[in-house]
Amino acid sequence: MPFFAPVGLVLGALCTAAAFLCLWLFDAPDTGFAGRCLVAALAAWAWMLCEIWATRGLHWDGLSDLGDATSSGASGERFWAVLRDSRLGAFGALHLLVAFSGLWLALTWQLANGQWIAPLLAPAWGRAACIWLAAYTVPHDERSLGGLACAGSSPQLARWQVVLATGMLVLVLLLGNCPFWRLPLLAFGQFLLIHSLIDTTREHGGVSGDFLGACIQWSQLWFLLVTV
Which regions span the lipid bilayer (predicted)? Predict the structure, then answer.
């Protein structure tokens, strides 16, 4: 777990390199505004494809499963039965649609403006947020992925992630031309997201890997939207 955010940085570098390779291959000065936007959208798609390939789509699966479970209104063991069901329901599909389209739009906007620092840092930010969640919750099943994450996290490690996150904010401010007023907004929104997920784990008896995957994806999306 201490290396979770650095691994995210490596993933971000891989995805961002794929996106800028796409920009380099397909961009042309005479394409006009619409053409540049189309190329940026293609590059954003390449970023997302690279992320899905590297992670095997594990976090997206968690996002859809949690969307189905939380929107079902179920509680107790019924909640966990819905969460573990591998079939995609309507609510999970809606959560996937919103998150996937939002990430695609945010990345397109970032890349169309020539920004590279936020796409580079977004996976690291999402994984730092995952540690914040794991450090302040209890696992539903200690033998599960959520249990392993909680065992490897601690409040002290979570505080180190705050230091890392602060460094990422400074980099975005200096290298990404992000307005300063957006940084408190980013921090406050992230706090609300983590707090909401913690409340959900307390309501349903603990955290699982699906919670952590959803936390990573929603946190990445929030980071990219606010820093654009």
Answer: 6-26, 33-54, 88-109, 116-138, 158-176
